[in-house]
Amino acid sequence: MRMCKIKLVVSDIDGTLVKDSSPEIYPEMIEAIRALQKKGIRFGIASGRQYASIRNMFAEVADDIIYICENGAHVVYKGENLHIKEMDKNDTRELLQELRACGPEYDYVISTADGCYLETKKPEFEAFIRDFYRNKYALTKDFLELDIPSIKIAIYQKGTIRELGETVLIPRWEKRLKACMAGEEWVDFMHSDVDKGEALRFVQEHFGITAEETMVFGDNSNDVGLMEAAGESYAVENAREEVKEKAKYSCPPYQEKGVYQVLKKRFLEE
After folding, report:
1. What pTM was computed for the model?
2. pLDDT score for 1
3. What is the pLDDT of residue 94?
4. Exposure string over 169-204, b if 16+ CB within 10 A, otherwise e
5. Least enclosed by CB within 10 Å: which of 30, 40, 196, 216?
């Protein structure tokens, strides 16, 4: 079967390209992005990370990447905000009050279109956000007093938060907000309309690219929308089962640079 000519490649980061929370991308991937761009193929990142974090990670090729940030709540290209989906202020207030009460073992990040805010007194968590995610951030005693619209709120527990996320937080909030696991250590909350797949469809329409001309890569439940919005979809071998079920193809895990292997074979060895 003849495959459609690909005009857009979009990949998740954590668990797909690299280990969760990694601050760097490997050099081969940077070279692959450059090669794609020379061939006229656009490259995008669809991640739960914020814009500044992704841009810092891909600094060498940052200017021409399409950024689907905050799980699709924020889309940026060439420094321009193409799309922002804000959370309802009442939802933000109620959710924050609940997360604050979860206990001292949990931390959380409130994202806006211009960076994120931490209500933490833990130097180690601040260092984690600064040095590993390399976020643009500020500390605040009470985000709600700032009266700034949020686009995503994420709660974190080192090691794993899956049990709390899948048995308590997601069931409690999924009828009001988009609530999903984002890796093993994070649960993300956004406006109910936010989804990586919907953001990808927005990007496709903006650039005049069809689903059949799009290739995507992912690993976690927040990547299912990507699989549904692309003609060629790959789940890395370490992906969650629900992602593998939606993906058309599989590729080696991030430890073996599986995304790079596919791109190299498909586009770089021609």
Report:
1. 0.93
2. 43
3. 98
4. bbeebeeebbbbbbbbbbbbbbbbebbbbbbbbbbb
5. 40
